[in-house]
Design goal:
The complex is a heterodimer of chains A (392) and B (368).
Chain A lengths: L6 H15 L6 H10 L18 H14 L6 H4 L1 H9 L2 H12 L5 E4 L15 E5 L2 E11 L7 E7 L10 E7 L5 E5 L10 E11 L3 E2 L5 H19 L18 H8 L5 H29 L10 H20 L11 H18 L4 H12 L21
Parallel strand pairs in A: 1-4
Antiparallel strand pairs in A: 2-3, 3-7, 4-5, 5-8, 6-7
Helix pairs in contact in A: 1-3, 5-6, 5-7, 8-10, 9-10, 10-11
Chain B lengths: L5 H18 L2 H8 L7 H9 L18 H13 L6 H15 L2 H12 L5 E4 L15 E5 L2 E12 L6 E8 L2 E7 L5 E5 L8 E14 L5 H37 L1 E2 L2 E2 L4 H29 L5 H27 L10 H11 L6 H11 L3
Parallel strand pairs in B: 1-4
Antiparallel strand pairs in B: 2-3, 3-7, 4-5, 5-7, 6-7, 8-9
The chains are: A alpha+beta (392), B alpha+beta (368).
């Protein structure tokens, strides 16, 4: 019953329940089933979908209690991208099947958004979905998909109408991945790792009931899904759009110690560089704290949108200074040269943040237009049928 | 430990910002900067009436008794408007120093007039080397028959030519000690400043009669305390100035038409603007954090102040330099205000110590 439980009662309920049920040795899916059945997975959702209809602040209390116990599975009303998208846009029949399975962690998921010809300009995608009775036939190529090899479903954007401007002919699907027309090829990255795949789609069959939102209105669904993703991005310190190389702030090298070990801590140029990079990190933390405080006061803060740009600069500058400290040692790589390996890896991996999830250049456009209100660039492809838009 | 509610700080922003929007316009700034004193006494009286001249002066001496957080908020507005006033030199540096040296007589004699705007006090620290460090002090103190006299040169004295009293740091046998000197006992020469909204003076002392303040030889600790308050104030001024300079630039980019469209629609300018927004907003975060840390006397206060000192200086110079470039030819004219901000930014980045100096101190705090 919404609004009828006090914060203290709620916390006590959660604690009591966890005290009885939480068992770290349980298999993950088994545990999640318990959490879902007890209505703790999505406490802020309506009861119809396994929630409790709690206000957002109380839903966060439940999540906090789970967090303190070290128990996973709550807070999915905020964090489960897939289930939130399904809840917002799915047909009832689709929701009944998919939402419980998603909350119980029974489905592996991936994202089928970017294409070789549609990176920064995602609305220029050319993967096609053609209606055929109660299903769609999908053909095209996707890229930067992590988890594609094991995924059961991918959230797919594909073109369903080529005779309207680019944003108006896109539809959004849950695409079954385990079928013959889906071919997954790992990509080898500049870091020599493989976190991502190319996905080739050839006559792939998607049931029409798996379409989220109306046909040709998938761009709006995508915007909502991207917003969910961005809103939780900072928390797992991952790059956006996919679970990639955890490039975020997790790896913060102690530059003072590195310089001391390398014998260059008394070099004034190095000292100034260390101060600059350390300051960038400290300033970003202060910006994040200020944005949170502003949100708490009910005002939005311009610093919110600056985080990704700031992080790219921190990572690139950090790697540059690490390299300056190690100097010729960075000529080498491999397990016998861990410091060089680290500096060299971070130098290349910084591009994960400055390109992935929208390049720094696109990010600057967004900040300039949405935060500073600078006029939009004229778009030559905005109001013409997509069929006539130049690709490549 | 005092925690200032966000609403109170917002109200302070609004009242000072509102006054300066009416009485501290660009025309007012240009008029004030052409006068010998460099400020408008009538506006200064209005600021005193608002409690700004005595913002950090304790209530027992007629001030507002506010702390670094309020000071930072006011200075953001002052920086945004390029306020021409003896705020930093007298109301911040001198007031903080008088509080720090712990000489009740001097406090009672000088602080009330600082607070009500009737008198100005200037602080002389560095010599011609321009270093706000103990080894920068070039004045020496001599005692003879119970009377002190000072000799030497103090440079870059903020609003020194307008002060009714000088506070001078001098070396005596014990270390560095603070003295009061009457301006008529010294040769106070106004200096031509690159930032026309700033007033600096050189103070030459030759057997100038002086009265010692506080503990003999312990003056640098007081100086450092006062400098921390002044650094926070300056950081606020820089952050506020950077954000306003950016806003003026963005505003212009929306109205200036070339190639049939506003120049702000070109990515060349948008990308600069986005980077500058990050600079300006980071400066605001740094200045406010330093103010809070100093107000709370937190263990990390020194580090926070040093960070704000160089981050805000760099942000202000970066934003204002780019502002001229982004405006184009109009900003190369004297009539356009962009250069006034650039001049203030370049001056602020040297007052009280250079960004490189504070970066070096910051690394030391990091354990380097």
């Amino acid at each position: 019953m919404p609004g009828t439980v006090t914060d203290d009662e709620l916390r006590a309920d959660v604690r009591d329940w966890l005290a009885v049920h939480w068992d770290p040795s349980l298999p993950r899916r088994e545990w999640l089933s318990l959490v879902v059945a007890a209505r703790w997975a999505v406490p802020g959702w309506p009861e119809q979908w396994g929630g409790r209809g709690l206000p957002a602040e109380q839903a966060r209390l439940v999540e906090e209690e789970f967090g303190q116990a070290g128990a996973p599975g709550s807070g999915q009303d905020r964090l489960n991208l897939w289930a939130n998208t399904a809840l917002a846009f799915g047909e009832p029949e689709f929701q009944a099947t998919f939402i419980p399975a998603l909350l119980r962690g029974e489905l592996e998921m991936c994202l089928l958004y970017s294409e070789p010809g549609a990176g920064s300009d995602l609305a220029g995608l050319r993967t096609r979905a053609d209606r055929d009775g109660d299903q769609y036939i999908v053909n095209g190529q996707k890229v930067w998909t992590s988890g594609a090899a094991t995924a059961d479903y991918g959230m797919l954007v594909a073109r369903t109408n080529w005779d309207v401007p680019k944003h108006r002919g896109i539809s959004f699907f849950f695409c079954p991945m385990k079928q013959p027309g889906v071919e997954v090829r790992p990509l080898r990255q500049i870091t020599d790792e493989s976190h991502f795949n190319e996905v080739f789609l050839t006559d792939v069959i998607v049931p029409a009931v798996n379409r989220l939102g109306a046909e040709n209105e998938g761009w709006r669904v995508l915007q909502t899904a991207l917003a969910y993703e961005r809103s939780t991005m900072g928390e797992n310190a991952r790059g956006p759009r996919s679970a990639g190389p955890g490039a975020g702030a997790s790896h913060e090298v102690d530059l003072v110690e590195l310089a001391r070990a390398a014998g260059v801590l008394d070099d004034p140029a190095i000292r100034q560089d260390i101060a600059r990079v350390s300051a960038l990190r400290a300033l970003n933390a202060l910006n994040v704290a200020r944005a949170k405080a502003d949100l708490g006061l009910g005002t939005s803060s311009p610093v919110m949108s600056l985080g990704k740009l700031a992080m790219s600069r921190i990572l690139h500058e950090g790697a540059r200074v690490q390299t300056a400290i190690l100097a010729a040692a960075t000529l080498l790589e491999g397990p016998d040269y861990p410091r060089a390996e680290d500096a060299n890896f971070l130098t290349l991996n910084a591009y994960f943040t400055s390109i992935g999830g929208g390049t720094d250049q696109i990010q600057r456009n967004i900040i300039a237009e949405r935060v500073l209100g600078m006029p939009r660039e004229p778009e030559v492809d905005r109001d013409i049928p997509f069929r006539e838009v130049r690709g490549g | 430990v005092t925690t200032i509610a966000a609403e109170e700080l917002t109200a302070l922003h609004d009242s000072v910002g509102g006054l300066l929007a009416r009485r501290g316009t660009e025309a007012d700034v240009r008029a004030a900067m052409e006068t010998p004193s460099g400020y408008d006494p009538a506006l200064w009286q209005e600021l005193a009436a608002l409690g700004i001249a005595g913002l950090i002066v304790p209530a027992q001496y007629g001030g507002s008794g506010a702390g670094p957080a309020e000071l930072e908020a006011v200075m953001e507005e002052a920086g945004a408007a390029l306020l021409c006033a003896p705020l930093l030199g007298s109301s911040v540096l001198a007031a903080a120093l008088l509080a720090a040296v712990g000489d009740d007589g001097a406090a009672a004699a000088l602080l009330p007039s600082i607070a009500d705007g009737s008198g100005l006090v200037a602080v002389a620290i560095t010599g011609t080397g321009g270093r706000w460090t103990p080894d920068g002090v070039q004045v020496t103190a001599t005692e003879f028959a119970g009377r002190w006299t000072l000799d030497g040169v103090a440079d870059y004295v903020i609003h020194g030519q307008n002060a009714g009293t000088l506070l001078v740091a001098a070396r005596d046998g014990a270390g560095i000690t603070w003295f009061t000197v009457a301006p008529q006992d010294a040769a106070v020469t106004p200096l031509p400043t690159f930032d026309h909204t700033l007033r600096l003076a050189r103070v030459r002392l030759a057997a100038a009669p002086a009265r010692p303040l506080g503990e003999r030889g312990g003056g640098w600790a007081a100086a450092e305390q006062a400098l921390d308050v002044a650094r926070v104030a300056l950081a606020g001024e820089q952050a506020g100035g950077a954000r306003r300079s950016l806003d003026l630039t963005i505003g212009y980019s929306k109205t200036r038409i070339q190639f049939g469209r506003p120049i702000g629609s070109f990515q060349a300018l948008k990308h600069m603007a986005a980077d500058l927004l990050l600079e300006a907003e980071s400066a605001i975060s740094a200045a406010r954090d330093a103010a809070r840390e100093l107000a709370d006397e937190a263990p990390g206060a020194r580090q926070a102040v040093d960070l704000a000192a160089f981050a805000c200086a760099d942000a202000f110079t970066t934003v204002t330099a780019a502002s001229v470039q982004m405006h184009g030819g109009i900003a190369f004219t004297w009539e356009h205000p962009a250069h006034l901000y650039l001049r203030r930014a370049r001056a602020d980045a040297q007052l009280l110590g250079t960004p490189a100096f504070y970066r070096e101190r910051y690394v030391q705090q990091l354990g380097g």
